[in-house]
Amino acid sequence: MAIAIQPYTPDLVPAVKALNSRLAAGGVVREFHFPESSVPEWLPKLPGRRLYQEYFLAVEGEAVRGGYIVKYQDFWINGENRPLAFYRLPLSEGIVNRAYTSVGVVMLRSALARQPVMFALGMGGMHNPLPQMLTALRWALREVPFYFRVHHPGRFLRNIAPLRRDAARRLLASLAALSGTGWLGIKAAQRLRTRAISGLQVERIESFGSWADELWQRCARNYFASAVRDSATLNLLYGEEKYLCVRVSRASQLLGWAVVLDTQMRQNKYFGDLRLGSIADCLAAPADALAVIQGATEFLDQRGVDLIISNQAHHAWSSALRSSGYFTGPSNFIFAASQGLAKVLSPLEQNFSQLHLNRGDGDGPINL
Amino acid sequence: MNAQLYERVRSIAADVLQVSATSITQQSSTENVESWDSVHHLNLVLALEQEFDLQFDPEEMDHMHSISHILQVLDNKLNHRSS
Q: Which residue of A has its CA nearest to B34?
């Protein structure tokens, strides 16, 4: 029987539950099951809302064989606002039953037929099936640079040491290499690399107000491309308590904001039991990126995190991280542009470092 | 079954799935060729599209989980094109 791609409607919930049961029986963990509600909990489609998600299912007769999610969001690209589609969580029964190997391909092609200007983000590294499929479809793939800064070398070394036995983890290779210098070496290396800015005020905020809109209006034109980061969007994305939003100023002049996380990891495959700080999202004029990174770093340091990480594509934010003592490591956070989007961003080779892209985009700061 | 078509498909499948051409038969499928996973399936579909200068519909791609099914889909498509 043929597979048909259709929107997720309430009558298909039992079939999705059945799919999840088959996946579970095949050893797929709950994290990779498809949502058992046809209405997204995160960013549902509401009248007038331009930031929302839609669910699609691969249906074969009465059974659901897979599904994927499309997140729609406005982007500022080369002086214009335009909606982009983000392809997320494609899930196929093919991972547990080889009779459905083709479902992943069918879903991807169907999504592209609906939304030719599309991107994917994250994906856990180039070696995974989705990036390989996107490469085969001639999407343009780039690694979003990864940065890290060690705040408690002792705890860092204790947590990294057991993990580095696993040679397969590329991320840990660079952390382990750094750990070879010992805690004094780490501290000294970071201090040497830091170009400190004085007089910064860092203030925690509960929500984004009109000041964030003004900042966005002022900053957007400095970026070749960025997701729209106005107050309405930011309050939708970062309303949850786990997101720590800070505003950075100097001499009472607003420079920018950052959204950071402070997470106690538990036996995490990359970070062990470290208390992980992450700079998930941020905005400022490129010239003020250094101040915002240093403000966010100081905020997380004062909370007592062991390690701070960030992924940033734009050269000004990358440079700000390096100038704040961050080291760079191998990235498993991949940006993939469909052929349609690559044309819009063309030449991507040249423009990639002009895109303001980080962990706030795509799925949002998950796994942090 | 068109023998020439079979040989072309067999050669492409062997190349994409990284197995010897002699191991590919009409019964070869996602069930019995270890390397025929979702990524290789996409590569096989794309290679066939390039070789035969056509594009498969999602329904057709869904049927193409064995060499015999691929031959059926291709045969229909090529006949339809020439008629």
A: A98
Q: Which fold has domain A4-115?
A: Aminopeptidase (3.40.630)
Residue A125 half-sphere exposure, CB side, CA atoms within 13 Å?
9
Q: Is the peptide bond before A365 cis (omega within 30 degrees of 0)?
A: no
Length of chain A: 368
ipTM field: 0.74
Residue in chain A nearest B33 by alpha carbon: A98
Could you read off the pLDDT tens digit of each residue along chain B, which spans 83 residues? Answer: 689 999 999 999 999 999 999 999 999 999 999 999 888 998 899 999 999 999 898 788 888 989 999 999 999 999 887 76
The residues, any chain, with a CB within 8 Å of residue A85's CB and separated by 6 or more, are A70, A71, A72, A111, A114, A115, A117, A118, A119
Among left, alpha and beta (phi > 0; psi -120 to 50; other), residue A27 is left
For the stretch A248-279, pLDDT in tens is 999 999 999 999 999 999 988 788 889 999 99
Are A4-115 and A146-328 the same fold in CATH?
A: yes
Alpha-carbon span A309 to A290, nearest angstrom: 15
May I ask the CATH architecture of the domain A146-328?
Answer: 3-Layer(aba) Sandwich (3.40)
A6 C-beta neighbours (distance < 10 Å), count: 12
What residues of B are in contact with residue A102 (Cβ under 8 Å)? 30, 38, 41, 61-62, 64-65
Domain boundaries, chain A: 4-115, 146-328
Asked if the Cβ–Cβ distance from B37 to A133 is below 8 Å, we say no
> Which of A98, A100, A141 is most worth mutating to test chain B (most B CB atoms within 10 A of its CB)?
A98
Q: Do B64 and A136 touch (CB under 8 A)?
A: no
